[in-house]
Amino acid sequence: MSGRSARGAGRARPSAGSGADAAAGYPGGMPEPRTFRDEPVSFVRRSGRMSEAQERAFAELAPHYLLDVPRDVAWTSVHPEARLDPAAEYGREAPLIVEVGSGQGHAIVAAASSRPAEDFLAVEVFRAGLARTMLDADRAGARNLRLVEANAPEVLSSYLPEAAASEVWIFFPDPWHKKRHTKRRLVRPGFGATAGAAIRDGGLLRLATDWEDYALQMREVLDGAPEFERAFEGEWAERFDGRVMTAFERKGLAKGRDIRDLTYRRVPRA
Ligand SMILES: C[S@@+](CC[C@H](N)C(=O)[O-])C[C@H]1O[C@@H](n2cnc3c(N)ncnc32)[C@H](O)[C@@H]1O
Q1: What is the pTM of this model?
Q2: Residue 225, domain member (yes or no)
Q3: What would the pLDDT profile of 181-209 be if each residue is shown by its tens digit?
């Protein structure tokens, strides 16, 4: 199974997120998951209708930008046998940079339009953000960008072929700052194997957050992951100059928080 077929054709099995959690607003009425492999997912479905412009973006721009992913149990799931074929999808062989949780798409649209020799993939579950990303990408003429509306760990661990990405970016992931919610964080024990599957030997995992406790957790998780080694000296990495300022970074700064970057290198596979 590959990219542009059978949208929503995955088996609709009941999931932990069915019933009251069922996704009004998600195409096909498929439920949203609360768990992935028995662990909580790192997002909650944001409510709110899309504007007319956003609906139009989906109708007009999705055929070019949005990957048509075979689903499994829920709308943001990825069928375990589905695989992206990057060379076929982008029409060439080029380094692939993946941004997880791309939000409104500011960082990835800026990167894609200024780095035409590389290909970019935005992974996001927030539909209005995906619509905004497509509108901005279209305006910027970025043809080397694709979007996938799916749960990022499933994209990293199975939808992308092993070692397909030269870099994975995770900027300002949801901090889940309440003690009882930290288990929902995207970067938690085990995430090294998830990201490490997608990144080629020597490739980079770049992270940034304004939440100190999460920065410490990211560093602890990735320092302990056999798939990665530090690609920075000292306590934290330098600010990644390929990262444009987004509203989340600006908000963190306005609240007086320090922004912490981390960069890890994928160690060669045995
Ligand atoms: C705090 S926002 C930051 C957005 C963007 N990186 C920025 O700096 O502006 C985090 C984003 O990650 C997305 N997200 C969280 N968990 C996700 C997951 N498991 N798969 C895909 N996207 C996810 C959320 O929908 C949200 O848009």
Answers
A1: 0.90
A2: yes
A3: 899 999 999 999 999 999 999 999 999 99
